[in-house]
Amino acid sequence: xxxxxxIKTFGCQMNENDSEKVLxxxxxxxxxxxxxxxxxxxxxxxxxxxxxxxxxxxSEVGRYKPLKKKKKHxxxxxxxxxAQQEGENLIKKLPYVDFVLGTQSFYQIKEVITKLQKxxxxxxxxxxxxxxxxxLVLPEETLSKNTEKVTAFxxxxxxxxxxxSYCIVPYVRGRETSRPPEEIIEEIKRLVELGxxxxxxLGQNVNSYGLKExxxxxxxxxxxxxxxxxxxWRIRFTTSHPKDLSEKLIRTMAENPKICHHIHLPLQAGSNxxxxxxxxxxxxxxxxEKVAKLRELIPDIAITTDIIxxxxxxxxxxxxxxxxxxxxxRYHEIFSFKYxxxxxxxxxxxxxxxxxxxxxxxxxLVQELQKTIxxxxxxxxxxxxMEVLVEGFSSKSKTQLMGRTSTNVIVNFYSPRxxxxxxxxxxxxxxxxxxxxxxxxxxxxx
Length: 446
Known about the structure:
Elements lengths: L2 E7 L3 H13 L4 E3 L8 E6 L4 H12 L2 H6 L4 E6 H6 L1 H6 L5 E3 L7 H10 L4 E3 L25 E5 L1 E2 L10 H5 L3 E2 L2 H13 L4 E5 L16 H9 L6 E5 L8 H9 L6 E3 L7 H6 L6 H14 L4 E8 L6 H14 L3 E6 L17 H24 L5 E9 L7 E4 L5 E5 L9 E9 L3 E9 L2
Parallel strand pairs: 1-2, 1-3, 3-4, 4-5, 5-6, 7-10, 10-11, 12-13, 13-14, 17-19
Antiparallel strand pairs: 8-9, 15-16, 15-18, 16-17, 18-19
Helix pairs in contact: 9-10, 10-12, 13-14
């Protein structure tokens, strides 16, 4: 009888994708469980992009200490960005943890567990090399959490060379490296065989895919190769660094019907002075030029973004410029955060920090403004007929189905048929909510 593994994942889609791979790597000995109390192996996949999720790791791992006392054979491990960042310190602070594997080392998890079963001495592996190429881990029908899912994440590159002054990613994910295109194609074809109809391509900066590797296609060319896969209906990607958003990529998005009309384009701040301090390598004017080109070639494009408030030295005037950018661009949605110091980063050493209370006020102002903009944009969908890829039942009711538009807006809708998961349908939008739309099924398209 196989043992059971419980994985708790924090952070971005890349971490979710890594957790998928861990399950597949362990498939011969372990099956997944949703209950940590029945697990023989507990893994916490961690995020350290901001301070709050890093703190969550310690409380999460602490919850499993009593289980370790009950079951002597239980193994507890930490992987991901906090593992990469903290290394041996995690074992010192949490001595009941059996292994700590960094963002490149988690691929060795099978060998690590075999070693621990023979010798219980804690193992820490956090080597980060510029030459690293992740091994191909093909999706599995019975083990992957993508089982019977319509959408899936596919990592096409990892690491980052940009070194924004606030960002820990280059220090915990390493330098930028792209996966071979043939491996990406093979993985997506396998997902399509398992019923996936939409993939989201992941990377810290997908726009620079293949630029460092000899003989690789660039990102627009890779998109066209992926679009040629039969029975794959939709392609999304994240994240796009504004400085590397090319007209070639915008035209590819406009011309290829499989590429969704949505782009996540992190602005971070609306002030050129703060953007320079953040080392973002673009001005707000350059950013707005790219937004204008996107809207010229793809009129219905949905743009989402990230905003950091309270960056060191951000004046009231700087912050007002961020609010003005929100009003000018009119994003569908934003992800907004208070600045927090991260280890290794340049901004950690900036002295002119903004008081916590002021950061809180600015965050609320940003969120209130965006709430109004989002509601106005969503109201414009009412009365329209939209193509929706059905992902399953609505989270609110088993009498409703849920899917997304090409513009990545969630639609909950009523239908006389509830067996539409994995189908592309036409839905008439009847109502706009705060973060989703409501509608009524019209017909099956695919």
